[in-house]
Design brief:
Blueprint lengths: L2 H9 L6 H13 L4 H14 L3 H12 L15 E5 L7 H11 L4 E5 L9 H5 L11 H11 L1 E5 L6 H12 L6 H14 L4 E8 L8 H17 L3 E8 L7 E2 L1 H13 L4 H17 L6 H14 L1 H12 L18 E6 L4 E6 L1 H10 L16 E4 L6 E2 L4 E7 L5 H10 E4 L9 E5 L1
Function: Catalyzes phosphorolysis of the pyrimidine nucleosides uridine, thymidine and 2'-deoxyuridine with the formation of the corresponding pyrimidine base and ribose-1-phosphate.
Organism: Lutispora saccharofermentans
Protein name: Pyrimidine-nucleoside phosphorylase
Length: 433
């Protein structure tokens, strides 16, 4: 078998066999296929696509390129959740204690952020002492005892995906639906959960800019899960403006606490309750969505959700007092108010521009090994549809840097103010199951 023939076959729009896909991934791993040929095949896939079987096979080939976590030592139906990434997306911090409070085990493997999307591990490490570098024994013990634990990715999961993504990143082949879907699902399947809830973001702050693209990605990933005997549901949620009011690691922990206390923003509360409800349905705690949604809403109102979050912090060596006193979280030295020069209504907020501004303030990473400032971020004071008077504060920048001009311009330009209000945004666009 020659990789040349595989490239030619896909270039001409033909279907690749399981053996050819496995040969390609094995060649990536052992170095027998050079980067230029791998890049050529990726470009052929970009233009000619993969069908459902090919996409599922590529997913499993990447899963089998490294370790696969065996969670059989954890009792019950293990449920995982994944977001395709957005600005102000602190949903994992909310749904983990919610699902655990309903008795569904959540064994969450999470990563760090790169670019303007923050990672769940980064956010939790804003809490003093919080430890995500757990041994397998501690991780399993936490889930069995408390129904929840979160750890950083330390195992050798899907190394083929890492190699392919590095090539896609420099060959303009990132935005290919089958390549995105197989990349995401390979990591989720290798993480060992029985069921997966996907939060597919759509809008200016998401990778998928149109609803049609987001739905196609969601359908592709659900099909992969189905073909590999993993119960999978995808929630297509809005990211045309930042989620909630806070962007940045400590800021987002603070806002997650507000949601769990029952004082959270409407958009992120609805998205979190929707995702947590589907997690608990897949995990067998409830037979249908509305029952789960009502129960979890009650968990928040009773204070049990916040108590469960305190427990998560405690079992992972963090300071649970932050749940009652968020001022204990890291605080930035400078707070710069951005004022409106117009009067009218917030017509739109470009979420990506807000994310870039937060990164420039120190909240994100330009390169993988960059350090981050947990206290840096942005508070959104006016959301889409809200009335704005001249000189009203539309957002506040938080930073320890002495030069914030570039971030200020990016944040200021993110807001579009018009004389008439925009129609209300939908928080949930579609459910694929």
């Amino acid at each position: 078998m020659r990789v040349y023939d595989i490239i030619l076959k896909k270039r001409n729009g033909h279907e690749l066999s399981d053996e050819e896909i496995n040969f390609f991934i094995n060649g990536i791993m052992d170095g027998s296929i050079p980067d230029y040929q791998a890049s050529a095949l990726l470009m052929a896939i970009y233009f000619k696509g993969l069908n459902k079987r090919e996409t599922a096979q590529l997913t499993m080939a990447m899963v089998n390129s490294g370790d696969v976590l065996d969670l059989s030592g954890i009792a019950g139906i293990k449920v995982d959740k994944h977001s395709t990434g957005g600005v102000g997306d602190k949903i994992s911090l909310i749904v983990i204690p919610l699902a655990a409070a309903a008795g569904v085990p959540v064994a969450k493997i999470s990563g760090r952020g790169l670019g303007h999307t923050g990672g769940t591990v980064d956010k939790l490490e804003a809490i003093s002492g919080f430890n995500t570098e757990l041994s397998k024994e501690t991780f399993f013990d936490n889930v069995n005892k408390y129904k929840m634990s979160i750890a950083g990715q330390t195992a050798n999961l899907t190394p083929a995906d890492k190699k392919l993504y590095a090539l896609r990143d420099v060959t303009a082949t990132v935005d290919s639906i089958p390549l995105i879907a197989s990349s995401i699902m390979s990591k989720k399947i290798a993480s060992g959960a029985d069921c997966i809830v996907l939060d597919v973001k759509v809008g200016s702050g998401a990778f998928m800019k149109s609803i049609d693209e987001a739905v196609l990605l969601a359908e592709t990933m659900v099909e992969i899960g189905k073909s590999l005997n993993k119960k999978t549901i995808a929630v297509v949620s809005d990211m045309s403006q930042p989620l909630g009011h806070e962007v940045g690691n400590a800021n987002e922990v603070k806002e997650a606490i507000e949601v769990l206390r029952g004082d959270g923003a409407e958009d992120e509360t609805e998205v979190a309750l929707t995702i947590a409800s589907y997690m608990t349905v897949l995990g067998g705690a409830f037979s249908e969505f509305n029952e789960a949604y009502g129960y979890l809403k009650g968990i928040i109102e009773s204070g049990k959700a916040l108590d469960k979050f305190k427990q998560l912090i405690s079992i992972q060596s963090g300071n649970p007092e932050v749940a009652d006193n968020p001022e204990l979280l890291p605080q930035a030295k400078h707070h710069i108010e951005i004022k409106s020069s117009q009067e009218g209504f917030v017509y739109s907020i470009d979420a990506e521009s807000i994310g870039v501004a937060a990164m420039l303030l120190g909240a994100g990473r330009r390169k993988k090994n960059d350090s981050i400032d947990h206290s840096a971020g942005i508070t959104i004071k006016k959301k889409v549809g809200e009335k704005v008077n001249h000189d009203d504060t539309i957002c506040i920048l938080h930073t320890n840097l002495e030069n914030w001009d570039e971030a200020r311009v990016s944040a200021e330009n993110a807001f579009k103010i018009m004389k008439t209000a925009n129609k209300p945004l939908k928080y949930i666009h579609d459910i694929i199951q």
